[in-house]
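Q: what sequence does this backbone want?
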């Protein structure tokens, strides 16, 4: 097999090495699912994506998304990073500033606005947790949860909880095995926490933990941030930070990701910038 064009893209940042990397294999058509999963395990990033021809005339390209352990129907930072990669590589061109990406969650609309790529989130559903799981979450976080947590499903399923403030989010030292056990019991990807910020750079700080998927802490998580926005919307708090806000994530891992959220016509839009850090080819033989 010929070498496959490859990029590693840092997402939710304009500065290399301050966001969340995604590995993007630009020529995924000749690979099987086992090959893709093996490559994703080898890159050892939170997600690796594979660009394929679309199976629908309504989309510009198709994307398959893998964690080190499983395939995902949708994820935020891989979607934005892969859109950046296919545009930069000339695989597709935006039409009137728009792209359409096919993935396991369906066909998603993306907008290119200067250096920012916006995606319209898949519709979110929410589910409450029972008292036993709530107490298990409290034990795993060892933190004060302000309101009842909710399971938010946007393809990936996150258990979302609000802590006292950004300082509590920063100080959190979770029991990762407890989060993994709870994740497996609830069939969720992991736990995302957030707290209101007073740093004048963002409205909230966010952290996302997915140890059951081999990701102790995701540096800057798109679907986790969508989960926070959906949590706010479904708990009648969508206007709490205005029609849109900025979230920061990753500082505890030496990053400083900036995630943009908008509430627009009943939809949640996720926005971020991206920068390519590595270009090359994967040799499979």
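A:
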């Amino acid at each position: 097999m010929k070498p496959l064009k490859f990029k590693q893209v840092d997402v939710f940042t304009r500065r290399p090495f301050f966001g969340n990397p995604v590995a993007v294999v630009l020529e995924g058509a000749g690979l099987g699912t086992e090959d893709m999963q093996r490559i994703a395990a080898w890159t050892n990033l939170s997600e690796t994506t594979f660009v394929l021809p679309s199976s629908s005339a309504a989309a510009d390209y198709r994307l398959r998304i893998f964690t080190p352990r499983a395939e995902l129907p949708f994820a935020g930072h891989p979607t934005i990073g892969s859109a950046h990669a296919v545009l930069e590589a000339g695989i597709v061109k935006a039409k009137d500033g728009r792209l359409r990406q096919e993935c396991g969650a369906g066909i998603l609309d993306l907008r290119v606005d200067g250096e920012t790529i916006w995606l319209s989130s898949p519709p979110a559903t929410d589910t409450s947790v029972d008292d036993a799981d709530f107490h298990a979450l409290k034990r795993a976080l060892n933190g004060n949860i302000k309101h009842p947590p909710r399971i938010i499903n946007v393809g990936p399923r996150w258990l979302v909880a609000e802590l006292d403030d950004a300082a509590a989010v920063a100080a959190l030292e979770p029991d990762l095995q407890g989060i993994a056990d709870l994740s497996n019991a609830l069939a969720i990807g992991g736990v995302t926490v957030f707290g209101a910020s007073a740093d004048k750079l963002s409205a909230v700080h966010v952290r996302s933990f997915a140890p059951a998927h081999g990701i102790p802490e995701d540096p800057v998580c798109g679907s986790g941030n969508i989960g926070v926005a959906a949590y706010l919307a479904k708990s009648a708090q969508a206007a709490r930070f205005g029609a849109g806000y900025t979230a920061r994530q990753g500082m505890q891992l030496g990053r400083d990701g900036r995630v943009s959220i908008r509430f627009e016509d009943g939809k949640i839009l996720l926005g971020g910038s991206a920068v390519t850090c590595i270009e090359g080819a994967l040799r499979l033989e």
